[in-house]
Amino acid sequence: MAENNKIIFSMYRVGKMFPPHRQVLKDISLSFFLGAKIGIIGLNGSGKSTLMRIIAGKEKEYQGEVTFLPGYSVGYMPQDPLLDDSRTVKEIVEEGVKEVIDIIREYEKINLSFGEPDVYENPEKMQQLMDRQVVLQEKIDYHDGWNIEHKLERAMDALRCPDSNVKVNILSGGERRRVALCRLLLQQPDVLLLDEPTNHLDAESVQWLETTLKQYHGTVICITHDRYFLDNVAGWILELDRGEGIPWKGNYSSWLEQKAKRLEVEEKGNIKRKKVLERELEWVRMSPKARHAKSKARLGAYENLLNQ
């Protein structure tokens, strides 16, 4: 499911049963490509969040296999994300770029150490630190690290996050979701899993999110009831229907058109099947003598039609 041909993960015969006998997902086999933008749709209780939790590795009890290529990362935002209540908004958001921040802090720590006698009086130690700083500088340049503060501020502002110094424990549910979403987008995992990402976002924030996800380098899989959002972001729709996963190429409007045509074809088939059943029923009700010659085969065919 994507535009290029690099498979990032696959599902083979994935199923999920809830006690006592409720089959939510049934034998789903799909391949997902790097860069795909996929919207998952289905009725309430069709298994959308369950499927996403399986992909995220949060749901362990299921049938089948989910296989990722080595070295790829997965980021998941559930509807009720967990945050460390002891931290501030800024500290939570910074977790998304922790690697870059740690590199910058190490670089700055080395800078300060150059003024210490045990360093500048020791040429060998001085050279080691200078060599390390060269490596760190390359990493900072690669991640555009010197602009990281601006990047954080821009993302927090776009998602209308609360003030940087506010403690997470006093945030509302909607504010917590915006902070968690900001952290995850800054983290930039190869596979981005979003469960109702537009909840509690205003129109401007939704527009910013749409633009960000359309340009996102990795695979995006989201569950949302926001059909306009799906129209603007999704390149594929994965429909969950009675346990089965049905992929459709295109956005939500395209899915509606394709679905309508498919139902029309099925309806024509059902009408034809109904007429055949009516004819067969007339035959079945005939006297035993009239239908004796081919009764066994024809009764079998009738039963097969009923079971279709």
Features:
alpha/beta; six-stranded mixed sheet; 47% helix; three-stranded antiparallel sheet; 308 residues; elongated; Rossmann fold; 9 strands
Number of domains: 3
- The CATH architecture assignment of the largest domain turns out to be 3-Layer(aba) Sandwich
Mean pLDDT: 87
Task: Supply the CATH class of the largest domain.
Answer: Alpha Beta
Q: What profile does the largest beta sheet have? A: 6 strands, mixed
Strand content: 15-25%
Distance between the ends:
29 Å
Derived from helix and strand composition plus strand pairing, the structural class reads: alpha/beta
- The CATH homologous superfamily of the largest domain is termed P-loop containing nucleotide triphosphate hydrolases
Major sheet: arrangement of strands: 5-6-7-3-8-9
CATH topology of the largest domain: Rossmann fold
Please trace the helix and strand order, writing H or E for each element.
Answer: EEEHEEHHHHHHEHEHEEHH
What can you tell me about this protein's structure?
With 308 residues, the protein is of the alpha/beta class. It folds into three domains: 129 residues, Rossmann fold (3-Layer(aba) Sandwich); 100 residues, Rossmann fold (3-Layer(aba) Sandwich); 51 residues, no CATH class. The protein has eleven helices and nine strands. The strands form two sheets. Strands 5-6-7-3-8-9 form a six-stranded mixed β-sheet, with helices on both faces. A three-stranded antiparallel β-sheet has the order 2-1-4, covered by helices on one side. Strand 8 and strand 9 form a beta hairpin. Helix 3 packs antiparallel against helix 5. It is elongated, with a radius of gyration of 28 Å. The mean pLDDT is 87.
